[in-house]
């Protein structure tokens, strides 16, 4: 039986400076919603005090889970969080809270009707480095050109998923952030309902990503997907 409520899933890597403050900020916000919830923190290879502090949060609050892997990569963290979540409705947020928390209740409501909810920075407002915006626009162009997808945000955080759908793709998740693209592409392919809504994003801090490695991983996965869908199936 599917439990009524939702899980906020958050990948964490070397977040000792914000993990306690920001998790408690989310907790305070969610308590006002008056429906069952949990926060699942998915550690991926942190080398600072993130795990120690995460375990303390788990002990202090009954609706916080801290799960951990020694492997690095945002995909590893989100995979751990998904597998250890209790609810059908999953809302993915970033640990630095660069995305407005108001996305969460909107997403939870929309997941009654959609398999995926995409929070779009382009549709809303964003305060990010120009080079990040340019990289995002380039990726959006590739998705539209190669796969005909009209969506305008494939980044980590500010996304909602029905767990029963994305579990079918769980073994495809690698260490990169390509899982977001994979979920959206296969939802569209399976004719699942997807919606995209505007969000506010203020991303000021130094990124936890190695962007050069991340871009290479994403492009490799992207062209691998295109090749398997457009070439191998015709052979």
Structural classification: alpha/beta
N-to-C SSE series?
A: EHEHEHEHEHEHHEH
| DSSP helical segment count | 8
Helix content percent band: 40-55%
Shape annotation: globular
Estimate what percentage of residues fall within beta strands.
15-25%
What is the gyration radius calculated from CA atoms? 17 Å
Low-confidence stretches: none
The average pLDDT is 93
- The count of strands amounts to 7
Biggest sheet: strands, sense, closure?
A: 7 strands, mixed
For the largest beta sheet, what order do the strands appear in spatially?
A: 3-2-1-4-6-5-7
Intertermini distance: 42 Å
Model description:
The protein is of the alpha/beta class and 235 residues long. The protein has 8 helices and 7 strands. It has helices at residues 19-31, 50-60, 74-83, 103-110, 130-147, 163-166, 179-189, 211-230; strands at residues 6-12, 37-44, 64-69, 89-92, 116-127, 159-162, 194-202. Strands 3-2-1-4-6-5-7 form a 7-stranded mixed beta sheet, with helices on both faces. Strand 1 (6-12), helix 1 (19-31) and strand 2 form a beta-alpha-beta unit. It is globular.
């Amino acid at each position: 039986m599917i439990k009524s409520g939702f899980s906020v899933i958050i990948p964490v890597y070397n977040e000792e400076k914000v993990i306690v403050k920001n998790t408690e900020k989310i907790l305070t916000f969610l308590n006002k919603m008056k429906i069952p919830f949990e926060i699942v923190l998915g550690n991926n290879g942190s080398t600072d005090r993130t795990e120690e502090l995460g375990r303390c949060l788990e002990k202090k609050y009954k609706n916080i889970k801290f799960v951990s892997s020694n492997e690095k990569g945002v995909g590893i963290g989100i995979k751990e969080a998904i597998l250890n979540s209790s609810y059908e409705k999953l809302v993915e947020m970033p640990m630095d809270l660069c995305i407005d928390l108001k996305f969460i209740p909107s997403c939870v409501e929309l997941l009654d009707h959609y398999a995926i909810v995409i929070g779009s920075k382009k549709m809303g407002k964003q305060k990010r480095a120009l080079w990040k915006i340019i990289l995002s626009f380039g990726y959006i162009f590739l998705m539209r050109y190669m796969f005909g997808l009209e969506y305008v945000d494939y980044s980590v955080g500010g996304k909602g998923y029905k767990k029963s759908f994305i579990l079918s793709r769980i073994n495809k998740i690698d260490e990169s952030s390509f899982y977001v693209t994979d979920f959206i592409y296969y939802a569209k392919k399976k004719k699942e309902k997807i919606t995209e809504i505007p969000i506010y994003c203020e991303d000021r801090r130094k990124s936890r990503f190695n962007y050069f490695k991340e871009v290479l991983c994403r492009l490799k996965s992207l062209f691998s997907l295109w090749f398997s869908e457009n070439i191998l199936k015709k052979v």
